[in-house]
Amino acid sequence: MSMLTPPGMGGKYRITGNKHPRMRGPRRRGRLVVVVVASVAVLGVGGWGTLQLIDVFTGGGRKASAAGNGTDCAPRTKASASPAAKALPEPRTITVNVFNATTRGGLAKKTADELKKRGFKIGDVGNATKQYDKKVKGTGVLLGPAAALDTSLPVLGTQLPEAERRTEAARKGAAVDLVIGDGFKELAKKTDADRALTKLARPEPAPTPKKGC
């Protein structure tokens, strides 16, 4: 074996010029690097795909972000605009007939006097007709024409909230009746009646549902 033969080659190769024989070791290392890089790329793509699947099945991504920001589609309540005040008649424009359907004397006049102090106009005062005499078990009955159902009767009703309200289609005129029943004790306190009148004329706005999405 020549002194110029690289050790370990067993004389198989001989160097005859300035070029050295190529070794196979570097080529194998290059292949190994390529394999490692390719494996990492495959694992990265697979991991990214797995994350996408997790987002799909767990509601991640934009939905999760929306939940984190406290945004949802639950119905919300929002007060509607305050309705315009009803055109209700004032007590001084309402004529009230007061009738006593009980066995207690003097109730009609006493009640009529109190209503007059509160601004109502008083019409007839006396005992109830046979139709109602001793037949009203509650606090009283408020009677009026059909047109009074949403006008005069609600205003008079603020003075005796428990009274029953009735209309008579054939009734003429604008006057209304207050028929005192067995359960009557007294009219509502003036402060409570005034508060009820104010609320009746200017009702509070009712909340309306509103979706947040």
Automatic annotation (TrEMBL):
Residues in LytR/CpsA/Psr regulator C-terminal domain copies: 93-184
Composition skew (Low complexity), residue ranges: 74-87
Annotated TM spans: none
Annotated segments matching region Disordered: 1-26, 65-87
Stored InterPro entries: LytR/CpsA/Psr_C (IPR027381)
Highest taxon listed in the record's lineage: Bacteria
Biased composition (Basic residues): 17-26
Protein name: LytR/CpsA/Psr regulator C-terminal domain-containing protein
Organism from which the protein derives: Streptomyces violarus
